[in-house]
Design goal:
- The complex is a heterodimer of chains A (356) and B (576).
- Chain A is built from 8 helices and 16 strands.
- With 356 residues, chain A is of the alpha+beta class.
- The radius of gyration of chain A is 26 Å and the shape is elongated.
- Chain B has a 6-stranded mixed sheet, with helices on both faces.
- The radius of gyration of chain B is 23 Å and the shape is globular.
- Classes of the chains: A alpha+beta (356), B alpha/beta (576).
- The interface between A and B is large, with 46 and 43 residues.
């Protein structure tokens, strides 16, 4: 879209197209505005108050994540008042939770840590005594640490609006507000299907992957973009790997709107990638000889299948043969298999695992 | 859950445009049927009947303070209002008396399972404190003797009737016109005294003419914010193809405020007539009265009055649903109130959009206070000019003022807008003791000192004069404080209230109010350190205006004023 509006941020003029928020424009131009509750895939929430900015002519500070930029707007992101409010927000989180970064899985890519760094806060100024809430590690793939939760609500929105599993919500109120699974069950006993979307949007270390624990800090991991092999949807995955070994999967956030999976993953794409490094993984065709599987070449294997199919058809007829294809292959491959079944073998016995 | 209960829930569901709205009424019903208690399992069952997720239902059940989830509340839940106005009238002493008598503390239940004792927030009974709510019933103007009678009677299984004499007076004879009449809640008495004639007149008027009359009257919202009612009405978009909803805000929860219940409980038809006229003006076919859960008995009066009005043919084109809250101050904020009617946690929404554009069920919605809507018949009957014969540019018309705290005749007084503070206090029997300060608009407004009141021509009770004096008219709930009380203690109790009621959505309010509680408690208990007072002020300055809804401002302004105006009292407590 054409750049038809100009806005001024901290004295510098930026061109932009209409329909963008002040936050969008600031981020596109590398102007630092922290956010804790806003996430592109869960939208504005107004809860964290971290992204407040000053707009000339407006009373009080405004949420930059929700405010549509208008031509001629004059914005400040670095006033003393804004600095104090940001400082207060970080202080409140650090004082009320247990945000010890040292061994946290989120160390190095935690949005609260980032904000604290920018505010120059190393120690909480208002330490409060809190009883530590026990970890919820009842679920197969996800660890929940309430002591690190900042109640931003991203996980709740993602669970209800993005993946629509409707497991998470907020319980209680005021300082007792807590994210709950169903009617406050441990995650492992709840109706959660472990898609991991909540972990992906969590800005802090409140939700982490069990399988990633201790495998390596964020900065030692390499991000590799790939397509999930489980089904034909073709979800984009950002695989985090270390020493060429899979650590965890995230739905691709970059250009998420253009991805078929819109940044989301299912339990298979999220957690089912450990097969990549399994020693008993199938890497070549096997042919059973004298009751034992023996490694074979593709030509050998295909020749055997072809001859057996021919024999069976000649002996028992085409109706005795059936084909079952996989969701892990593409539409085109499935079509080819259907043509082979009907056109070459001459049977309608063809089905697909996606019908299950 | 038995079939009868399930059937009742299904009937409630059918009442609403969206079945989810039945969640809170259903939980209330089930709790009552289960001896004052809810369990995880019961909440899950209700969720299934209504068709919401278990997490949403549990989130709602744990949000509202009147739902007792896994609490094992006794047969009689004795709830003592200990908020600021109650404290000013001796509630803490009475609480201690009950606690000693029953041998239980806050949240505990007697071993026979008969009594549970709780300290609760303002019950909107400030003029008749100390007040105790036992299950659904209010016992006002309580004394140790009356407590003895109450407990004895409850032990015998009888909810006693303990009569109360209320103070009230009307100088304008509009909102309290029928306050002294017998059976004023019945439609026959209402009609005998001119009731429903204005509705008949209004139904013949063009809606836009009614709106312009209300606009011309310059009636300002009586809930607290003082926004011009006619202007609010004119924000409704035209021809959206969506229904328009009118909601009467009867959540009366601002500590110091007990005025709306005078209309709700003693002249319900005045409100209903006001709502019917307003609904006609706004093109609304379904209206709601959102009433605080503690006012259950008043809700029944309203239900009965609506039924009577329907039978009498007054509500031909309008249906009114009485929706009971369940214990949440924030639900007095209009978007939180809307969420609550939708069967959700009472969380204020981000604005824009404003309710007039997208409110209840995402449809255009107008939310007005009880007193505002009850003022409409007078304006439509007599015209804007007649309304403006009272008051001045600083605020027109008549207004209910609730006076509580250290006065001789605490009560509700209907006076012209702009009555002087001095006159109003005289009406309330004068100050009992030496006044050191007063809060004139409900707990959310800055305190004024006795010296400040002496400045200039004297404070007038209207919007502009209050602003001039550095405070706000708010809801017109006046609390008189004498030297018998400690301002730091009042400040600590004030912030405890707001912290208890914080919805928990935004960080500054959820955690900041808690931090202010810790700091003020520390100061009041004599453990304060140098710098603590300034820390509180730092939070006040950074919370004010920076929260998701106006609540942050509602406590940071008054706390800041208490500290700044009575700083030596706070300093005295810092010994470290």
């Amino acid at each position: 879209m054409e750049n038809t509006l100009k806005i001024t941020i901290n004295g510098k003029v930026y061109d932009s197209s209409p329909g963008k928020t002040v936050l969008d424009i600031a981020r596109a131009n590398n102007v630092y505005i922290p956010t804790l509750c806003y996430h592109p895939r869960t939208g504005k929430a107004g809860k964290c108050r971290a992204c407040l900015v000053e707009i000339e002519g407006f009373r009080g500070l405004k949420e930059s994540c929700a405010l549509e930029a208008k031509d001629g707007m004059i914005i400040k992101t670095d006033t003393e008042q804004i600095k104090q409010v940001r400082k207060m927000i970080v202080e409140l989180h650090l004082s009320n939770g247990e945000h010890n970064c040292i061994a946290c899985e989120k160390n190095g890519h935690c949005e609260l840590q980032d904000m604290a760094y920018h505010c120059g806060i190393e120690r909480p100024g208002f330490p409060e005594y809190h009883e530590t809430i026990p970890l919820d590690d009842s679920a197969e793939g996800i660890i929940r640490d309430h002591n690190k939760c900042i109640e931003c609500g991203r996980c709740v929105t993602a669970c209800n609006n993005n993946v629509m599993h409707e497991v998470l919500d907020f319980g209680w109120r005021s300082g007792h507000t807590k994210v709950i699974c169903d009617n406050d069950l441990p995650m492992g006993e709840s109706s959660c299907v472990q898609c991991g979307e909540c972990v992906q949007v969590c800005p802090v270390g409140a939700l982490t992957f069990k399988n990633a624990k201790g495998k390596g800090p964020y900065w030692e991991l390499e991000k590799k973009k790939t397509i999930c092999t489980y089904c034909g949807v073709g979800c984009s995955i950002d695989m985090y790997v270390k020493d060429n070994k899979w650590v965890y999967s995230m739905g691709t956030e970059e250009n998420w709107e253009k991805q078929t999976n819109k940044g989301m993953l299912c339990v298979k794409g999220r957690f089912g990638m450990d097969f990549l490094d399994r020693e008993d993984r199938l890497t070549t065709p096997l042919i059973k000889k004298n009751g034992k599987f023996v490694e074979a070449s593709w030509d050998e294997a295909l020749n055997l299948v072809s001859s057996k199919l021919g024999e069976t058809k000649a002996k028992y007829g085409a109706g005795s043969i059936g084909f079952f294809t996989s969701a892990r292959t593409s539409n085109e491959d499935n079509y080819a298999m259907m043509r082979f079944a009907r056109g070459v073998i001459g049977t309608n016995n063809v089905d697909h695992c996606a019908r299950l | 859950m038995n079939d009868k209960l399930i059937n009742s829930i299904q009937q409630i569901m059918a009442k609403y445009p969206k079945k989810e709205s039945a969640l809170m009424p259903a939980l209330t019903l089930v709790q009552k049927a289960n001896d004052n208690n809810l369990t995880k399992e019961l909440v899950a069952e209700v969720a299934e009947i209504i068709g919401v997720t278990p997490s949403r239902a549990y989130g709602v059940a744990t949000y509202y303070s009147m739902f007792n989830v896994n609490k094992n509340v006794g047969k009689y839940h004795i709830q003592v209002d200990t908020n600021v106005p109650a404290t000013l009238m001796g509630a803490l002493k009475l609480y201690k008396y009950i606690s000693d008598k029953l041998g239980i503390k806050h949240g505990e239940t007697t071993s026979d399972g008969l009594f549970t004792l709780s300290k609760v927030e303002c019950l909107a009974s400030c003029g008749t404190c100390p007040v105790i709510q036992v299950n659904d019933v209010y016992y006002e103007l309580m004394t140790p003797e009356k407590v003895d009678m109450l407990i004895d009677s409850l032990r015998k299984g009888v909810m006693p009737e303990l009569p109360v004499e209320y103070n009230w007076e009307s100088q304008c004879n509009v909102l309290l016109k029928r306050r002294g009449e017998k059976n004023a809640t019945s439609i026959s008495v209402y009609k005998k005294t001119g009731g429903y004639q204005v509705l008949a007149k209004a139904l013949k008027m063009k809606p836009e003419d009614i709106i312009s009359e209300v606009k011309n009257s310059q009636l300002r919202g009586r809930g607290g914010a003082g926004f011009p009612t006619g202007v609010k009405w004119s924000f409704l978009p035209k021809n959206t193809g969506k229904p328009v909803y009118l909601i009467c805000n009867a959540d009366e929860g601002e500590p110091g405020t007990f005025k709306d219940r005078q209309i709700l409980a003693y002249d319900p038809h005045l409100l209903i007539e006001g709502m019917a006229i307003s609904a006609h003006a706004l093109g609304c076919k379904l209206a709601f009265i959102y009433i605080r859960g503690e006012f259950n008995w008043i809700a029944q009066i309203l239900e009965k009055a609506i039924e009577e009005a329907k039978k009498d043919g007054q509500l031909k084109d309008l249906n009114i649903i009485v929706h009971l809250g369940a214990g949440s101050y924030i639900c007095g904020e209009e978007t939180a109130l809307i969420e609550s009617i939708e069967g959700k946690r009472g969380l204020p929404r981000m604005k824009p959009p404003f309710p007039a554009v997208s409110g209840l069920y995402n449809c255009p919605t107008i939310v007005n206070n009880v007193e505002t809507l009850a003022s409409i018949p007078y304006i439509v009957e007599n015209g804007a000019d007649a309304f403006k014969k009272w008051g001045s540019e600083g605020g027109y018309g008549f207004k209910l003022f609730g006076v509580s705290g250290a006065v001789n005749k605490p009560g509700v007084y209907e006076c012209p807008m702009g009555i002087t503070f001095k006159e109003l206090i005289e009406l309330a029997g004068g100050v009992k003791g030496k006044m050191i300060g007063v809060i004139v608009g409900g707990l959310s407004v800055p305190i004024l000192t006795t010296e400040e009141l002496k400045k200039g021509a004297g404070l007038k009770m209207d919007y502009e004069s209050c602003i001039e004096y550095g405070t706000s008219l708010g809801s017109g709930g006046i609390m008189v404080i004498t030297d018998e009380f400690s301002i730091p203690e009042i400040a600590a109790r004030t912030i405890q209230f707001y912290n208890h009621e914080s919805c928990g959505q935004c960080t500054p309010c959820r955690q900041g109010s808690g931090m202010m509680v810790s700091l003020l408690n520390k100061i009041v208990s004599g453990k304060g350190e140098k710098g603590d007072i300034d820390k509180v002020l730092w939070f006040c300055d950074n919370i004010k205006g920076n929260t998701l809804c106006p609540t942050g401002e509602a406590y940071s302004s008054p706390i800041k004023a208490m500290i700044n105006k009575f700083r030596p009292e706070f300093e005295k407590l810092i010994t470290n």
